[in-house]
Design goal:
single chain; about 130 residues; alpha+beta; 4 helices
C-alpha cells in the first residue's frame, strides 16, 4: 500500500478528473466532525462520462495501492470511497438536484488548481521498459 498524504491524494484526484474532462471540480476540506477529510465533487456531461470519471479515480487508487471500496451508484451518480477522500461524480442534472455541497455547510472549498500543479505527477502510468 502506497502512502500518499490525504490532502495530496485529494489534490491528485481533483487534477486527474479535471484532466479527464470532468467539469465544475469542487474539492471540499471537511470539518473535523465529518467521517472523511475531503469530498471531491465533479460533473460529467453524460452518464457514460460519470462512469468513466469514477473508473479513472478507481484505477488511480488501484495503481497506487490506495485503500478503497468498490464504486457505488445509480444512473447519473457514482461514489468512490478512497478512505479519507470521497469522490462523487454526477451528471449535471443530479448535481443540480442533490447539491451535495449543502451537506457540509462548514466545509472549506480548496483552491486546488495551483496546489495540484505544484505536485509531482504520480497519476501517469510508468513508461514501458525499452
Amino acid at each position: 500500500m502506497t502512502h500518499v498524504p490525504t490532502r495530496e491524494l485529494a489534490l491528485h484526484l481533483a487534477r486527474l478528473l479535471d484532466d479527464k474532462g470532468g467539469h465544475d471540480v469542487l474539492l471540499l476540506a471537511l470539518p473535523p466532525s465529518a467521517l472523511v477529510d475531503f469530498a471531491l465533487l465533479v460533473t460529467g456531461r453524460s452518464d457514460r462520462q460519470v462512469k468513466a470519471l469514477t473508473d479513472e479515480a478507481l484505477h488511480f487508487c488501484k495503481r497506487l495501492r490506495i485503500s478503497h471500496f468498490p464504486p457505488e451508484g445509480e444512473t447519473g451518480w457514482a461514489l468512490l470511497d478512497c478512505g479519507d477522500v470521497i469522490v462523487h461524480a454526477l451528471s449535471e442534472e443530479m448535481r443540480q438536484f442533490y447539491r451535495l455541497e449543502r451537506l457540509w455547510p462548514e466545509a472549506k472549498a480548496v483552491e486546488w488548481q495551483a496546489e495540484a500543479a505544484a505536485l509531482a505527477r504520480i497519476d501517469l502510468p510508468a513508461p514501458a521498459a525499452v
